[in-house]
Amino acid sequence: MSFKKFAAQANEVIKFALEEFDIKNKSYTITEPPKEDFGDLSCNVAFLLTKELQKSPYQIASLLVEQYRHYYNQNKQEFGYYISSVAAHESGYINFKANFDLIGNEISSDILENNLSFLDLGKHKKVIVEHTSVNPNKSLHVGHLRNVVIGDTLYRILKKTNHDVTVLNYVDDSGVQVADLLVGFLYLKFPIQPADKNIKFDKYCGNEIYVKVNELYEKDPTLIEKRKSLLKKLELGDPEINSFASKITLKVLTDQLVTCWRIKARYDLLNFESHIIRSDLWKKTFEKLQHEKIIAKETEGNNIGCWTFDSSDEGTKIIVRSDNTATYIAKDIPYALLKVGTIEDIFNYRIFAKQWDDTNLWSSTTDNSGNVTRPIFFPAEYSITVIDSRQTRLQNIIKEILNKLTQKANEYRHFSYGPVLLSSRTAKSLGIGGASEKSVQMSGRKGIYIDADFVLDTCYSKAKEETMKRNPEITGEDLEKTSEEIAISAIRYSLIKNDLEKEIKFDMIDSLSLEGNSGPYLQYAYARCCRLIEKSNAKSFYGDMNYLSSVIENRIIKHLSKFTIIIEDTINAMEPKLIAHYAYELATLFNIFYEKLPILKEIDTNISAARISLVEAVRLVLKVNLCLVGITPLDRM
RNA sequence: GGACCCAUAGUUCAGUUUGGAUAGAAUGGCUGCCUGCGGAGUAGUUGGUCGAGGGUUCAAAUCCCUCUGGGCCCGCCA
């Protein structure tokens, strides 16, 4: 949008002025100044020329600006119409002010008439995003939620910018954690149904069985032997054990999906680890690794009898154990190969469920009934695996192996993020952690975590209370839906607004806040826009932006005109938080505008019409941004 | 022991990629603003040796080095 053109013209001006002094290939930057008094863009080139020209920055800046003025006076039509003024500042900067009349009218037609349909950055590039992938032995806690929210937000942003996105959820249904559950059901005789019928099955397994079984391992080591034998049976495909395990894991998975769908995540495909292990896929991968001499069988030393990979950075890693079972990392290799296209997709697929957004969720299947028309899932040109930073080393090894297998492996990226910790206050409320500790690691195994549904439920109650207080007329289903959407927005926003690589210190009380820099704040600004538009009775928005001249109006216009830049930055840097920050700033600017200037009550009809059009533009951009981060815009709240 | 990550206001965090003008929000505390288009808002105030030290530079929260503190990973676990 227009801000980019403005910046490009500022650059032209500098380039032109430099050429007049016969200076070429000088690098400089044009950035936004810290204060708006200075202008809308600033260039630092004068600082960089002090040695060459033996003059002060201010003298140089003045000379350059003079050159431009001189030229501009003679050739008004040539360039610079997005620029309203250029000035040398005493500090040495060259400051540009934008022509907001022009930019205002351009963005108003971009947004109001073209409906933001210009975001084709992907050009149908095929992208895979794998996220969630929670072991099917427990319910989700807030740590998992961060994964889901990051993954789903990536999906939304990529999709909106015209990438062909396939979302995968990998189900590790044959690992130790499932074996733990089997120990509980088969040896410790936990009933198949929880005593309390209201309790979700995933919570029953995670909170009661999984934690209890792990406690008992300490007291009764024979249970660990039992787990080991169950694990082996799982891997080798023992029919009875597998059918039972599959029943349990599917039930847990189904309940997990309820939570994921609740916060508006969605998937295209479930891949089951058991299917990969028992298919030819693993066999083929194993053969390929041997054939390409990427792995070797150890004939001496500690790892005798194992197939190992020599990583340049990580040393020797065992891929296949001496008892011929595959390690955790090994099981990920065929999946990665499938994603990037070095191995063929041999699976059959079936529709697993219909989702909240009316799309099909598919799943791999072991039977041969897969003769159905279905989407092509693999491979992708770019595949993203969302897993927390603790798995970085393993992901690096997988990448290293991929690169050895083929030079033209499509791009495989580990999308890393920091884990979620409990704040000391929240930990204390659970009876964990000393007074000195700043935060506490969650552990599903030890039962130290905040359950995802619990957070959502608590936030929902709070939102409901607040909504009733403010809007007594909202009742029944409307009230429930509104409260739920507010709760989701609070949680999603709090998990996406921070830097990816930093850990989040999750605090139960803070995260219930519906004020300040929060999801509901954004929704509130949007709802205000809606009410204004509704009350204006405007059918169309042809307000002339030339009538807007106050500082705050120009700040909004400027911010709106940067929308496409933010989207591009988000895609280039793969930083979903940029969208959240942009939306927050837009909401803040709008609230100030709303506070300071009359809109519907403005007497001058031209100004009023222009302001209403501005509100509509803000509303539309806010709406797109909210949807990108998975927050539902509400007309009322 | 080796690898990686983090450190900014009482608290939670932006800003570091690409060095630049008086380091910004939110929250907490205090004080204002609805006979105004929705107060989930807004205005003000309080609060900072940008972990420490050195270096590069006209200029460092930002780049480099050293150190300190915290985290995380390094298994024939997943």
Report what the structure shows.
The mean pLDDT is 92. The protein has helices spanning 2-20, 45-48, 50-53, 57-74, 100-113, 142-160, 176-187, 201-219, 222-236, 239-262, 273-278, 280-291, 328-340, 392-405, 424-429, 452-470, 476-496, 508-511, 519-536, 551-561, 563-573, 577-596, 605-628, and strands spanning 30-31, 41-43, 83-88, 94-98, 126-130, 164-171, 269-272, 295-297, 307-311, 315-320, 348-354, 360-365, 382-388, 411-417, 420-423, 439-441, 504-506. It is of the alpha/beta class and 637 residues long. The strands form four sheets. Strands 11-12-7-6-5-13-14 form a seven-stranded mixed beta sheet, with helices on both faces. A four-stranded antiparallel beta sheet has the order 1-2-4-3. Strands 8-9-10 form a three-stranded antiparallel beta sheet, with helices on one face. It binds one RNA strand of 78 nucleotides through strand 10, helix 13, helix 14, helix 16 and helix 19.
